[in-house]
Write a structure and sequence with these properties.
Number of helices: 1
Bound molecules: zinc ion
Helix content: 25-40%
Structural class: alpha+beta
Length: 67
């Protein structure tokens, strides 16, 4: 996975450093029907993962309000 992303975080676009905490993220959250397949996984910094998770859940809330 690191090779696919060229050693960069998909959220902030910065390179992973040896001291960074790296987490595996579901590009499409499993709560939104995302799969556990390789295609739907990416590596993010731990803090970037937190940001994305917050954005993902905000999106769900926004959609609910629009309906
Ligand atoms: Zn990052």
């Amino acid at each position: 996975m690191l090779k696919k992303q060229k050693g960069k975080c998909n959220q902030c676009g910065h390179y992973f450093m040896p001291e960074d905490l790296i987490e595996v993220d579901h590009i499409i959250p499993r709560s939104q029907g995302g799969s556990d397949k390789y295609d739907n996984l990416q590596l993010l910094h731990r803090h970037c993962h937190d940001v994305k998770t917050a954005q993902d859940s905000n999106g769900i809330n926004n959609n609910d309000r629009e309906r």
